[in-house]
Write a structure and sequence with these properties.
- Pfam families: ADH_N, ADH_zinc_N_2.
- This is NAD(P)-dependent alcohol dehydrogenase.
- By secondary structure, the protein is α/β, with parallel strands linked by helices.
- About 30% of the residues lie in helices and about 25% in strands.
- The protein has nine helices and 15 strands.
- The strands form three sheets. Strands 3, 4, 5, 6, 7, 14 and 15 form a seven-stranded mixed β-sheet that branches. The protein has a six-stranded parallel β-sheet with strand order 10-9-8-11-12-13. A two-stranded antiparallel ribbon has the order 1-2.
- Helix 7 links the parallel strand 12 and strand 13.
- The chain starts with a strand and ends in a 9-residue tail after the last strand.
Length: about 325
């Protein structure tokens, strides 16, 4: 089978197409023919070996796993012994976590992993966009932010994979959402449910002209800091960020004594048991039309370096998807 592999850290062109023997599922495992996989910020960090914390996860001197990709969607084409949850022909989606391996024509996963049935009416590209964005946004808002109806929420990076999901989910949960993005995505963020949109090229959301404050500041791209966000946080407010740093990890501890909290979460490290109900809920919302995973573009596996380059720009709208099985490539 064809895979996208890399053997050293660097720019997008370190990732190339190779041939590898197709894996066979063992007991309790299923093999999924990968119709779609996401190329996200964690993949780009793992490929580059930067920032510093990426090498703690991917390998200090060189990559431990040569095939990136944690989000996958496709069809089960083989099952191992004693598999009960799935059968050949089932449409499924999920995440491999730190194991990666989804940037390939097939991936083997445990039937008890973070994998669930893919409902009719949800495309495989939408499914991996759920994994890439909403599976981070939902626990951040629900668990880290303790979001409740009527709260005022600022989403920084509102047009990205995580940010676009956060805007929709926060608005659906009854929050008053302000989205921060570039001028080219303002209309999109408004359509997603933001009551107000701030163009960061014209206005600093952390230095508002008025006295606006927020109950939650969700920095989905790590473009700000807790120190700066405190200016716009209401009493009892929380600053949430997806990007680790020494500062935020220390502030998460020290801010517990103050009136405003800093929160960092590692949602990808949650257990499969914790992830599966969220995958099912988000898929059901998508199937019913109440949530719309945002897909920036769909590229063939051969264009994986281009996919990484798009992610590196920091200006994508939603999730960049690759289709390892070209004949099954879908329209977004």
């Amino acid at each position: 089978m064809r895979i996208a592999a890399y053997h050293r850290y660097g720019s997008p062109d370190v990732v190339g197409i190779e041939e590898r023997e197709q894996p066979e599922p063992g007991p309790g495992e299923v093999r999924v023919r990968v119709h779609a996989a996401s190329v996200g910020a964690s993949d780009a960090a793992g490929r580059a070996g930067s920032p510093w914390f990426a090498r703690l996860a991917f390998g200090l001197r060189r990559p431990r796993n040569t095939v990136l990709g944690s989000d996958f969607a496709g069809v089960v084409d083989a099952v191992g012994a004693d598999v009960k949850r799935f059968a050949v022909g089932d449409r499924v989606f999920g995440a491999t976590g730190a194991d990666g391996g989804a940037h390939a024509e097939a991936v083997v996963v445990s039937e008890h992993g973070a994998i669930v049935p893919l409902p009719d009416g949800v495309t495989t590209s939408q499914a991996v966009a759920i994994c890439d964005g909403a599976m981070t946004a939902l626990p951040f808002l629900r668990d880290g932010g303790r979001l409740r109806p009527g709260m005022r929420v600022l989403v920084n990076g509102a047009s990205g994979a995580v940010g676009s999901a956060a805007v929709q989910l926060a608005a659906r949960l009854g929050a008053e959402v302000t989205g921060v993005c570039g001028p080219g995505h303002a209309d999109l963020v408004s359509r997603l449910g933001a009551r107000r949109v701030i163009d960061y090229t014209r206005e600093d959301p952390m230095r508002p002209a008025d006295a606006t404050t927020y109950d939650l500041v969700f920095d989905a791209v790590g473009a700000s800091s807790f120190r700066r966000a405190r200016r716009v946080l209401a009493d009892g407010g929380r600053y949430l960020t997806t990007v680790p740093s020494w500062a935020i990890m220390l502030q998460q501890l020290t801010s517990r004594l103050g009136r405003r909290r800093a929160v960092i979460m590692f949602t990808g490290l949650r257990s499969a048991e914790a992830k599966r109900p969220d995958l099912e809920e988000l898929a059901a919302l998508t199937a019913s039309g109440r949530f719309a995973p945002l897909v920036d573009r769909i590229l063939p596996l051969d264009a994986v370096a281009e996919a990484h380059a798009v992610v590196d720009t920091g200006h994508k709208a939603g999730t960049v998807v690759i289709a390892p099985v070209p004949e099954l490539q879908e329209a977004s």
